[in-house]
């Protein structure tokens, strides 16, 4: 495993998983069924020969809620406890595998582990690595009614919004509030 590519890939997977439910949308659930979850795993190169069943959908939704709780924790100690609970429940056990071409790979879950456990291991390890050195980059959007999570990649770590639309909405709302205040007073 190349840690330079593993961490961003696992963190991207984790962010996509958490943001796969957005109550602001007409259809809030993006991982509603087996086909959606299979597509998610395929995009993140985790599906392999495995098949997804209804239980996988349900357990992935529960994992999503657990990872969101890490982002939304009121303090760092709570976030770390929640993350450690995810890793413990997933049964993270590092395993080095020798490939046929002579290369070695590091896995955090057995290849035959349930897909959600493998996801919890990968996303959990990526999140753990971020929490060790860059916990202040893991954020929840400051936009009104937006609960999307993101990794702040700005140099000074001051990004507050998940994207331009939330930032623009906030700017317009602040401007309109100032106009109402000045017109009324």
SSE topology string: HHHHEEHEEH
Number of helical runs?
6
Shape: elongated
Q: What's the alpha carbon Rg, rounded to whole Å? A: 19 Å
Arithmetic mean of pLDDT: 88
Return the domain count.
1
CATH A-level architecture: Orthogonal Bundle
Main sheet: strands, sense, barrel? 2 strands, antiparallel
Low-confidence stretches: none
Q: Write the CATH fold name.
A: Jann2411-like fold
In spatial order, strands of the major sheet run 1-2
Annotated CATH homologous superfamily: Jann2411-like domain
Percentage of residues in helical conformation: 40-55%
**How many beta-strand segments?**
4
Structural class designation: mainly alpha
Alpha-carbon distance between the two ends: 62 Å
CATH class call: Mainly Alpha
Which band does the percent of strand residues land in?
Answer: 5-15%
Brief overview, please?
With 185 residues, the protein is mainly α. The chain has six helices and four strands, in the order ααααββαββα. It has helices spanning 3-18, 34-43, 54-71, 76-90, 115-134, 164-184, and strands spanning 95-98, 104-107, 138-140, 149-151.
């Amino acid at each position: 495993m190349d840690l330079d590519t593993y961490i961003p890939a696992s963190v991207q997977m984790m962010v996509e998983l958490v943001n796969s439910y957005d109550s602001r949308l007409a259809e809030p659930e993006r991982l509603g069924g087996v086909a959606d979850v299979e597509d998610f795993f395929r995009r993140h190169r985790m599906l392999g020969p495995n098949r997804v069943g209804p239980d996988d959908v349900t357990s992935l939704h529960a994992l999503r809620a657990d990872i969101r709780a890490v982002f939304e924790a009121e303090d760092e100690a709570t976030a770390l406890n929640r993350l450690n609970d995810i890793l413990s429940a997933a049964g993270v056990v590092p395993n080095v595998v020798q490939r046929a071409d002579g290369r070695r790979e590091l896995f955090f879950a057995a290849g035959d582990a349930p897909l959600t456990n493998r996801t919890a291991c990968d996303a959990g390890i990526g999140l753990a690595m971020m929490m060790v050195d860059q916990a202040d980059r893991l954020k929840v959007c400051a936009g009104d009614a937006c609960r999307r999570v993101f990794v702040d990649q700005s140099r000074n770590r001051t990004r507050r919004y998940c994207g331009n639309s939330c930032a623009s909405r906030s700017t317009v709302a602040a401007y309109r509030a100032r106009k109402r205040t000045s017109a009324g007073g």
